[in-house]
Amino acid sequence: MVAPPAAGNCVYNFGQRPLAYTPPTGFLKINTFNLPDSTIEDGSDYFNTVTFSGNGSAASVTGVGFQPDFIWAKNRTNAYNHELWDAIRGVNSDLASNSTAAEITTTNRLVSFDSDGFSYGTSSNLYVNGTNSVAWNWLAGNSTSTNTAGNVNSTVSVNTTAGFSIATATTVSSYGSFPFTIGHGLGTAPAMVIYKSRTSSGQNWWVWHKDLPNAATGRGILLNSTGGEVNGGYFASNPATATTMGINAAALINDNVVMYSFAEVEGYSSFGSYTGNGNAEGPFVYTGFRPAFVITKRTNAASGWPMHDDKRSPYNVTEATLYANAADAEVNPSTEDIDFLSNGFKMRGTTTARNSSGSTYIYIAFAENPFKNSNAR
Amino acid sequence: MYYLGSTALRQNSSFEIGGTVYPSNWLQQSTEDEKTAIGITWVDDPVRADDRFYWNGDATLPKALEDVDAVDENGDPLWVQELDETQDPPAMVDTTERLVTRGLKHSWTAQVKNTSGTMLAQTDWMVTRKVERDVDIPANVVTQRAAIVTECTRLETAITNAANMDAFIAVVQDQRWPK
Fold first, then answer.
1. Chain-chain contact of A76 with B55 (C-beta, under 8 angstroms)
2. Which residues of A touch B55 (CB under 8 A)?
3. With contacts defined as CB-CB under 8 Å, which chain B residues touch A204?
C-alpha cells in the first residue's frame, strides 16, 4: 500500500490484475476471491422473504424456493397481529410475536406448507383485500424426530447446515423442578433461542441471546415488549449447550411450549451486539455477508424490535420498518434507516430502537449472500 | 440477468447443462456468442416501481398518503402501548392515545424537517454566538438559513397539498435545498 499522490490519480491493484511480484508465502491478494468459501453460498436456500398482496380470498404464496418449516408473516398495511406458524405445531396453530396470548387453533389461517411457499385462508389477516404482507421463511428439517437429550423430551425439526431448529415439548410435572432442559438437535450451542408457551395465556415470548449483557446468568429479553434485558434468571445459567437449552422461570409446569433455536453459521447468520453512537454516520456491524434480514433490540433500556429486509427495501437506505413486538403497520421513518452492505450493515438513523448514543444493542441477521459472493447494493 | 430456459443463473455460481458442469466464473469470462451457443439468454430485470411509494414494487399498489386511526382484525380501535415496569416481568399496557397508521405524507414531512434541521445545525453556533456575544452572522449564512427555512416550508405545504401519488412523488423528487 502506498500513500496517494498529492495530485492526480492513484490506481490500486488488489489482485484484479496480475501482480508485478509474487506475494510472500502465506499471503494472498486483498480481494474477496481469496476469502474462504461459505458452506451456504445462497442464503435464500434456507431463509427467504416474500411479499404479496391480499385480494379478499384464500391464496397461495410462492417464490420461497423451499418448503418452509417456520413462517413469520405480518400484514404491512394494517395494524394486525404478526402470525407465526411452524411445521411441528401445524397449520392450525397461530402465535403472534406481539402478543402474550396462547396459540390460536382456528382453521383457515394457514392452510398448508407448500413446496415453494405456503397457502393461507380467510381466517388469516393476510387475505384482507387491498392490504400487503410480508412473510419471512426458514427451512428446518422438513421432517421431525424425537429428541431425548434434555430432561424434557422434545419433538424437533432440525437443519444443522443452516443452524436452525424448531422444538416443541410438554413440561411435564413428573420432572417437577427447574431448570427444564429441552433438546434442540443442532449439535452446537445456539446463539439465540426464542421460547413461548403455546397453551397458557398471558405468557411472554422469552428470548435468550448470547450477547445479552447478562446472558451467562440466564437473563432474557421479551420479544413481545419494548423492555430491555429482564432481571432474574428466566433461563438457566449458561443455558445453551450443544444439545439442550436450559429454561428456568420462563417455563410453566405442565405446559406445551415451542422453542426456536439458532446457531451461527459463518457467511449465513450472525447474532451479535453493538453500541450506538446517536449519529447518522452510525456504527458498522460486520456480519461476513450481505444481509437479507436484520432485527435489532436495545438491551439497556426500552425500545422496540425493528425488522428490516431486502425485499421490502430492495435499495439502500433500508427504511421499511415493522416491529416484532407491535401490531403496528409498516412505517418508513428516516430515523430507522440502515444500509445493507456486502459484508454487514450500518446504522444511518438515530432512533433509540437502533442507534442511541451509548446504548447497547443485540442483533439478529440472515444472509442474502456471503461476503465472498455478494455485491454492493 | 442470464437465464437458461426459465432458470435464472447467478453470477459466481457453477451450473450444469446436460451433464457438463460450468465453473463459477464461466458467466464472467465467456462471450455472448458462447453463452448463446449453449442456450443462455439475457433477460432485462423487470422495471420495479419505487418501493418507497408503492407496495411490492408494483405501480398499481400505491401506499397510503394520509394517516388513519389503526384498528385490529375485528375493527376495534388500537391504542399506543407503553411499558409498565411495575409488573414483573415488565409488560406492555395500553395508553389512552389512539394508535395511528402513518401515511407517506407524515413520514416525508418528518424527513423534510429532519433535513432542514440537519442543515441549520451546521450554522446554529453562529446564531448562539450572535445572541451570547453579539458577533454578527455572516450575510451569506443569514441568506442560506432563510433559504433552508423557506424550502422546508414550501415542501411541507406541497406535501400536504399533494392530491395523489403522482403529485406527491413530483414534490418529494423536486427538493431544492440551498447549497
1. yes
2. 51, 53, 76-77, 132
3. 89, 91
Tell if the CB–CB gap between A334 and B111 is shorter than 8 Å: yes
Give the ipTM of the model, two decimals please. Answer: 0.82
Same domain, A258 and A291: no
Secondary structure (DSSP) of A183-204: E---SS--SEEEEEESSSTT--
Domain annotation covers residue A196: yes
DSSP A44: G
Maximum Cα–Cα distance across chain B: 82
Q: In chain A, which residue's Cα lies nearest the Cα of B114?
A: A334
In contact, A221 and A298? CB cutoff 8 Å: no
Position A94 in a domain = yes
Would you state the pLDDT for residue A15?
A: 75
Instruction: Tell me the C-alpha distance between A220 and A223, whole Å.
Output: 10
pLDDT in tens, A300-325: 999 999 999 999 999 999 999 999 99
Taking only the tens place, the pLDDT of each residue in B19-67 is 899 998 899 899 999 999 999 999 988 788 999 999 999 999 999 999 9
Please report the DSSP string for B47-65 in residue order: P---TTTBGGG-TT-BPP-
Closest-CA distance, A338 to chain B, in angstroms, reads 14
Residue A9 lies in a domain: no
Judge whether B56 and A53 are in contact, CB under 8 Å: yes
- Going edge to edge, which strands form the sheet with A117-120? A59-61, A117-120, A110-114
Question: Which tens digit of pLDDT belongs to each residue from A190-206?
Answer: 999 999 999 999 999 99
Dihedral angle of Cα A176, A222, B73, A74, to the nearest 10 degrees: -110
* Residues in chain B within 8 Å Cβ distance of A125: 73
Domain of residue A232: give its range.
Answer: 145-159+168-262
Q: Does A204 touch chain B (CB under 8 A)?
A: yes
